Amino acid sequence: MTIEQLIAEQQQENQEIIEALLEDGSNPDADYTIEHHFSCANFDKLEKAAVDAFKAGFEVDDAEELELDDGALVFAFDAIIEHKLDLERLNTDCKALIELAEKHGVQYDGWGTYFVE
C-alpha cells in the first residue's frame, strides 16, 4: 500500500470514528485527548520518531516494550494532543504523523480517544 493510500484510508477512518463518538452521545463541543499510536521492533528508530513528534507539538509518552501474540517484542509510544473532534485537524495531524512514521521506518497504528459526557 502506498503512503497516499494509507493517508486516504486513515482519513476515512477518522470520519467514521468521529461520527460513531457523536452518534453515541459524546460531547461535540468538548476538548478530546487524542492519542496517536506508534510501534517498531527497533527502539532507536522509534526514539527518533518520538523526537520528531515532540518537535511537531505533541506530548510524547515513554516507550513501552510489548509482547505480540506471536511472541515478538515491539516498542510503542503515543503522541498525545488535545483538541476538538475536528475532522480537518485530525486529517492534517494524521497525514503528518503517517509521513513521520514513513520517514523513520516505524508503524503508525492510528489514534484513539475517550468518550466525553
Automatic annotation (TrEMBL):
GO terms for molecular function: endoribonuclease inhibitor activity; enzyme binding. It comes from the Bacteria. The keyword Cytoplasm applies. Residues 12-113 form the Regulator of ribonuclease activity B domain. Keywords: Cytoplasm. GO terms for cellular component: cytoplasm. It is found in: Cytoplasm. Belongs to the RraB family. Interacts with the C-terminal region of Rne. HAMAP family: RraB. NCBIfam families: PRK11191.1. Globally modulates RNA abundance by binding to RNase E (Rne) and regulating its endonucleolytic activity. Can modulate Rne action in a substrate-dependent manner by altering the composition of the degradosome. This is Regulator of ribonuclease activity B. It comes from Ferrimonas aestuarii. The gene is rraB.
